[in-house]
Design brief:
Length: 250
């Protein structure tokens, strides 16, 4: 596979967002910020422009400050500790796996599980570009237990970004009409089937040659669909802003 065929490059949806993240990058002029969508004038006289970018299922908010009148206020704001959700439960299993639990009432009778692996495209060597995305495809679809969720109303998917590979399942607990359990093995707990599927996807996938070849074609098809002028411009911008590291080429 050639690099041009399978290279993953996350679109930079907002130049303001990249300016806020890139070390040493010049900030846009205050006048430009004032004219930008979502820009507003702070009480201190500084222009604040908020750029929103959805990447890999996560909402990233980057704010660029220009002409700050009182830097002390900004330092105080940035030094404030973000308080966790009151019902958030965190811990670590004996095998080192960290877990986070958060009760959710809306929508009702649904269960979501996200398994985040701390490995992504930035961990590839120069001759491996695109492999992280391919591995995500093969491991996700190479799970028999994931297939057991078919027909239960569950939605499963995966994504790869620079630093993470995430597998997630969104599943109804009961039938909305009959209140009958939707997931198999409900006697062991409604979430058991979902957690078993995620564990198999991450730690015991089937790397069959036929599956690898099929998903290789799927990855190349995705790359072809994304190969637009806007996407190539975004990639060039990333390479310019991150020329000191590998992010622009991963």
């Amino acid at each position: 596979m050639s690099r041009a065929q399978v290279t993953r490059c996350t679109p930079a949806r907002s130049q303001a967002a990249l300016h806020a993240r890139a070390p040493g990058a010049r900030r846009p002029a205050a006048a430009a910020l004032a004219a930008a969508p979502g820009a507003r004038r702070a009480r201190s006289g500084a222009y604040i422009s908020a750029a929103f970018c959805r990447r890999g299922g996560r909402l990233i908010v980057a704010a660029t400050l220009a002409g700050v009148a009182d830097a002390t206020d900004v330092r105080q704001l940035l030094s404030q500790e973000i308080q966790p959700h009151g019902e958030l439960v965190q811990g670590r299993l004996p095998n080192g796996l960290q877990y986070v639990l958060l009760p959710n009432k809306t929508p009702p009778a649904r269960f979501e599980a996200h398994l985040e692996m701390h490995v992504g495209s930035v961990d590839e060597r120069a001759d491996e570009q695109g492999v992280a995305h391919l591995v995500e495809h093969v491991t996700f679809l190479g799970s028999k237990k994931r297939e057991s969720l078919l027909g239960t109303g569950a939605r499963a998917n995966a994504y790869t970004d620079f630093h993470h590979t995430v597998f997630h399942v969104h599943a109804p607990l009961v039938n909305g009409v009959t209140d009958a359990p939707m997931l198999p093995q409900a006697r062991l707990g409604a979430a058991w089937a979902v957690l078993q599927a995620l564990a198999e996807i991450a730690f015991a996938p089937q790397f069959l040659p036929t599956r690898v070849e099929k998903e290789r074609k799927a990855v190349l098809a995705e790359a072809q669909m994304m190969n637009t002028i806007e996407y190539r411009v975004d990639c060039q911008l990333l390479q310019y802003l991150h020329e000191e590291n590998n992010l622009g080429y991963r």
